[in-house]
Design goal:
- By secondary structure, the protein is α/β, with parallel strands linked by helices.
- The chain has 2 domains: 12-122, Cobalt-precorrin-4 Transmethylase, domain 1; 127-251, Tetrapyrrole methylase, C-terminal domain (Methyltransferase, Cobalt-precorrin-4 Transmethylase, Domain 2).
- The protein contains 8 helices and 10 strands.
- It has helices at 28-36, 74-86, 105-114, 127-135, 166-169, 185-194, 221-231, 246-251; strands at residues 12-17, 39-42, 59-62, 90-95, 118-122, 147-152, 174-179, 202-207, 215-220, 237-241.
- Strands 3-2-4-1-5 form a 5-stranded parallel sheet, with helices on both faces.
- A hairpin with a 7-residue loop joins β8 (202-207) and β9.
- α2 crosses α3 and α6 packs antiparallel against α7 (221-231).
- Bound molecules: S-adenosylmethionine (SAM).
- The site of S-adenosylmethionine (SAM) has 22 residues, from β8 and β10.
Length: 257
Amino acid sequence: MNAANDNGSYGSIVLIGAGPGDTDLLTLRAVARLREADVVLYDDLAGDAILLFANPLADLIAVGKRAGHPSPKQSELNRLMIGFAQQGKRVVRLKAGDPAIFARADEELVAAREAGIAVEIVPGITTPTAAAAYLGASLTKRGVARRLQMVTGHDIDGQLPRDLDLNALADPGATTCVFMGKATFATLAAQLIARGLPAETPTVVVESLGTTAPHKYTGTLQTIANALALVRPSGPCLILYGAALQDVVAAEPLLSN
Ligand SMILES: C[S@@+](CC[C@H](N)C(=O)[O-])C[C@H]1O[C@@H](n2cnc3c(N)ncnc32)[C@H](O)[C@@H]1O
């Protein structure tokens, strides 16, 4: 049974997209919901400065999910979120980028609805569009890149997902954005080249967007995996490849910051 809070209102859950981390890329709606929150459950990837927008009386709880570090199980996180809402609290679940893109919002939406708790999504700027702004590049290009696709490079076991549509991913007329692909990109690139995607396809890695030290590494499908192995970037990385990125790579053909 859901309880009402001191103001007589019932608990709620808002999944907020924090965007890449820059406070001025938050939406006005995100700021409004943060100001109203009683509890904020936030991911590692959301920039800490964003938390300054939260109601000063709110409980701020880190529920980080950075790869390689311990993080609560999704089921525990759902229980925590639902538990606060059932006490009548307005719960914000703050996620990097957009909550509906590779952020397990599906599981949180189901859990909230099954518990009969009102749930809302406030969109955020997803990493590919933040990357386009950082690179000063368009991800689509008339006659060159007529498809934009987002894919995860990381399955539940940490491996490259076995059921990827490699034909789609080897489409030379697409720009492809690979989330969580640092460890598996060498394998993916080899499979794409074997499917006929040119080895010299422009490829860019963007790391730690929205922080004070973002980086980019440029190269080709063939060279970028070696570059990643050499540099071993520690921040979150998005890998983008496709002909639309030709100008970005031509401007800085070598591994660069
Ligand atoms: C769990 S997914 C979250 C995606 C997020 N919901 C979005 O819309 O961008 C985490 C992955 O997103 C990408 N990512 C998230 N934040 C990033 C950042 N600040 N810089 C570069 N890549 C980032 C990386 O591929 C990272 O491994």
